[in-house]
Amino acid sequence: MTARIIDGKAISAKRREQIAARVAEMVAKGKRPGLVVVIVGEDPASQVYVRNKVKACAETGIYSEKIEMPETTTQEELLAVVHELNGRDDIDGILVQFPLPGHLDEDAVIEAIVPEKDVDGFHPESIGRLVVGKDTFVSCTPAGVMVLLEESGVDLSGKEVCVVGRSNNVGKPAALLCLAQNATVTMCHSRTRDLPGHVGAADVVIAAVGRPEMIKGDWIKEGAVVIDIGINRLDDGRLVGDVEFETAKQRASAITPVPGGVGPMTIAMLLENTVMSAARSAGLE
Length: 285
Ligand code: NDP
Description:
The chain is α/β, with parallel strands linked by helices. The protein is built from ten helices and eleven strands.
């Protein structure tokens, strides 16, 4: 079997068109969604992510602002900016780009953002609502994974899903979202004893580890669906996922490539969360 490639670029482009149409409708009713991205310091990867987010806003008609703060910013100064943004009526989403410089407390920053503007879905209240099955902002990358599965016609109900990685922003919400779709979910992590066994039993494998090609293609069950969230840059400059793509492709029924799979979905979901927040605040749901 050779797997169907799940084309994240195409699915994300379609989603962005839908978002642009929705934004145009909202603007016609007098509400333009607004997102602020706050970046502290000069981390080059973060600069690229932020630039892409601002560009994506412009392309879909969402108002955006970038606030750049120096590496030496204090916790108080950063929290003061967040508090000011919390109070602004023209801003529906606040995103503080991580990682922050080491002297700043990321958890305190997440908790300072009002949950109504937590378009990254990182606030404990947002995660708590996800746990209890209430409507909420869902962290953008796992939200994007669910769209890829849906658009690929994968019905999770009753399926065995193996999520590898349990971070608060990626692995855990991915597992909760699959559970909400009635999958039987196994969560694996660095202390898991028999990773090949768990991966090999899964109908759907979701990898969010950050180790190049650590999930071997011959672990994958024949016909399984593979979603690879990992983005790893090798010494020779190539980007690879957490799954050994070429061999996994021979066994899976569908698989996401890296790059071009999950990556493009993340920004689309950020835009979607911002639009959802704006619709709520303007009573346009
Ligand atoms: P974290 O480092 O926060 O979490 C990694 C997880 O992998 C941890 O739960 C860790 O387990 C687990 N892990 C580490 N080693 C092993 C192992 N040998 N076997 C099994 N599990 C292991 O990473 P993130 O969740 O933030 O990101 C994961 C990957 O996804 C990264 O490559 C990142 O670049 C990518 N990513 C991609 C995005 C996109 O837009 N496509 C967005 C966000 C992330 P433990 O908890 O026990 O330490």
